[in-house]
Amino acid sequence: MAEPRSTIWETMQERGHSRRDFLQFCAYAATLAGIAPAAHGKVAEAFEKKARPPVIWLHFQECTCCSESFIRAEHPVVADVLMDAISLDYTETLQAASGHAAEKCKADTMKAYAGKYILLVEGSVPTEADGVYCCIGGRTALDILKEAAAGAAAVIAWGNCASYGCVQNAKPNPTGATPISKLIGKPVINVPGCPPIADVMVGVVTHILVFGRPPELDAQGRPKEFYGRRVHDTCYRRPTYDAGMFVETWDDDAARKGYCLYHMGCRGPVTYNACAVTKWNERTSYPIQSGHGCIGCSENQFWDNGPFYQHLPSFPGFGIESTADKIGLAAGAAAAVGVAAHAISTNIRKRGLIHEHVAESVTENKSE
Amino acid sequence: MDAIKAPSYRRIYVWELPVRAFHWINGICILLLGVTGYLIGRPFAVISEQEASFQYWFGTVRFLHFAAGYLFLINMLARIYWGFVGNRYANWKQFIPTRRKWFTEVADVLRVDVLQTRVQGKIHIGHNRLAGFIYFLSFWVYGFQALTGFALYAAMSPSWIGRAAAAVIPGTWNDMGVRQWHHAGLWFFVLFTIIHVYLVFYHDYVEGRGTTSSMVGGWKFEREDYFKS
């Protein structure tokens, strides 16, 4: 058996953090997970007494932007502690071990903590050609995922790749890239985004650490606390939307004044994420604040909903430039032309009938 | 001497008040929804020196769309109800061709409309069988538009209708797709209106049964001999 694992408080002490640092961390983590201040004591208690859960972080078809985002969590204490707190036992990009040693480390964790470890998955899994498009250590991603998921206490899908398939899954999807929720028979916590917001990732992990269970999820498996509202609903440019003040070209006066980017293809009204609330890079900004519309990177199939600078996507099957409006207008014009032609032809072909009608009226008049 | 004998006509009360009211309320709603919906999809920017706090034109357009959406839905439900309690011309069974001779009439109407031949058999006094079937299909589009519209509305309103609609939509559909199809639905109404209005005029012109005015007063006129055979 593996040795008993230390708690977060013990780990922090080992690393020379004070009690104050620890409580700061608890308060921060609790706030991120949306816990009321009155219950912050419980969080501290949990971090004092609960053993750190072992974590396995798998990388498949991805670009590592989720990892990059995660290590940039806002609070230095969180960034520092959480990486230790969650006791990352296996992650290809950050671990010191490599080769057989690394694989053994993962195998040991899965064996010793079966049913207890948290599985984090970054990237989609290819299913075409028996999954040969992504192999690690001589095994396919699908094989590795199924083995790791079997004994996991909770499975989190990091980013749009693992949640929805992202760009690999865009048409025509040559590798058969598949979201992990479709491959394992377990509930998956989807944390979409390309990448997801660091503080959201930390918030989800914290929630599991504190409560020992996943946060409340919506129909698409996303935590409601972070994906419950549209970017549009929390956007600081929203008043200009309601007022009808829109940017119409990237260099017009409205763009300079920071009006609504709806016209420029902003996906804020159809995207569920916390960008406008938590913002990015230590609350510096988020895309709309920086003057560019949201591209909806946390939404299913966002690559196929292009072009990004058109808020109604091109219509499937009619080429890139054809929106529903262009097709509809063409059909409407065709109908109008058809109707006009029909009206002309009616007066020619039905001449006899019309004469009959008139003749009827004439006889009626005569008989009076 | 006169080969053509003046036929006598009988007056039939076809469209009851609730049917006529549904028709015109529906028409007004569709016009309003179409115009505001198009503007929501493709708004024009207001050029103004005023701050955003003093303006609300786009908000007003959206409000009109949502309000008309509610009216459209309730009106539609009322019409479905009337399909069970109204007269024989309003009955729901008028909209689904089931019997063999109904299909014969559909084919006849198609020949009259497209090839512009003479009417062979009888054209039904209420909706002709082809029109009835097209309205049946239209009701599915109405339902689709109401469903997708209210599902999109759920994101900005606590209304239970919105939440119920959003719950019916598959969880894997995102708002972008729902919005796209809801928008595409607008063009169905454009096409429908062009063809519907034309065909009313056309049938009135070639049949002379008072089709156009029937939706105002409720009366249609039919030759006496129609009832004999």
Provide the descriptors you would attach to this structure in a database record:
heterodimer; A: 368 residues; alpha/beta; Rossmann fold; Cytochrome-c3 Hydrogenase, Chain A, domain 2; two-stranded antiparallel ribbon; B: 229 residues; mainly alpha; Fumarate Reductase Cytochrome B subunit; elongated
Coarse shape of chain A:
elongated
Q: Strand tally of chain A, please?
A: 9
Shape of chain B from CA axes?
A: elongated
Radius of gyration of chain A: 29 Å
- Element-by-element helix/strand order of chain B: EHHHHHHHEH
Give me the CATH superfamily of the largest domain in chain A. NADH:ubiquinone oxidoreductase-like, 20kDa subunit
Biggest sheet strand order of chain B reads: 1-2
The number of helical elements of chain A comes to 15
Top CATH class of chain B:
Mainly Alpha
Mean pLDDT of chain B: 89
**Backbone CA Rg of chain B:** 22 Å
Counting structural domains of chain B, the number is: 1
Report, as a whole number of angstroms, the end-to-end distance of chain A: 114 Å
Main β-sheet of chain A, in a few words? 5 strands, parallel
Task: Report the largest inter-chain contact.
Answer: A-B, 60 and 47 residues
Low-pLDDT residue intervals, each spanning 5 or more residues of chain B: none
Give a written overview of the molecule.
The complex is a heterodimer of chains A (368) and B (229). By secondary structure, chain A is of the alpha/beta class. Chain A folds into 3 domains: 8-227, NADH:ubiquinone oxidoreductase-like, 20kDa subunit (Rossmann fold, 3-Layer(aba) Sandwich); 229-313, Cytochrome-c3 Hydrogenase, Chain A, domain 2; 327-367, no CATH class. Chain A has 15 helices and 9 strands. Chain A has helices spanning 8-14, 19-32, 40-49, 65-70, 76-85, 99-112, 141-150, 159-164, 198-211, 224-227, 238-242, 253-257, 275-278, 324-349, 351-367; strands at residues 55-59, 88-91, 118-122, 125-126, 135-136, 139-140, 154-158, 177-178, 188-191. Chain A has a 5-stranded parallel sheet, with helices on both faces. Chain A has a two-stranded antiparallel ribbon with strand order 4-8. Chain A has a two-stranded antiparallel ribbon with strand order 5-6. In chain A, strand 5 and strand 6 (139-140) form a beta hairpin. In chain A, helix 2 crosses helix 3 (40-49). Chain A starts with 7 loop residues before the first helix and ends with a helix. The mean pLDDT of chain A is 86. Chain B has a two-stranded antiparallel sheet. Chain B has one domain (9-43, 54-94, 132-228): Up-down Bundle (Fumarate Reductase Cytochrome B subunit). Chain B is built from 8 helices and 2 strands, in the order βαααααααβα. Chain B has 229 residues and is mainly α. Chain B has helices at 17-41, 57-85, 100-115, 129-153, 160-168, 175-207, 211-217, 224-228, and strands spanning 9-13, 219-223. In chain B, helix 1 (17-41) packs across helix 6. Classes of the chains: A alpha/beta (368), B mainly alpha (229). At the A-B interface, helix 11, helix 14 and helix 15 of A face helix 2 and helix 6 of B.
